[in-house]
Amino acid sequence: MNDINRLMEGVRAVRYVAFFIACMLLAPARDPLRAQGAAPAGRAGWTVRGTNTGVVWTSKKYVHSAYGNQVVNVLDVDPSLAVLRPVRTASDTAYESVLSMGTRTAAIGGVNGGFFCYTQNDICGPNACSSPPNCPAPVDPLSLLIVADSLYSTNCGPRTSFGITDAGAPVIAQVVGSQGWPGVAYAIGAGPNLVTGGVKKITQEGFCWYTESAPRTAVATTGAGHILLVTIDGRYTGADGMTIDMLATFLVRELKVTNAMNLDGGGSSTIFYGGRIVNHPSDTTCNGCCRCVYDGLFAFPK
Question: 239 has which bridge partners?
Answer without folding.
Answer: 236
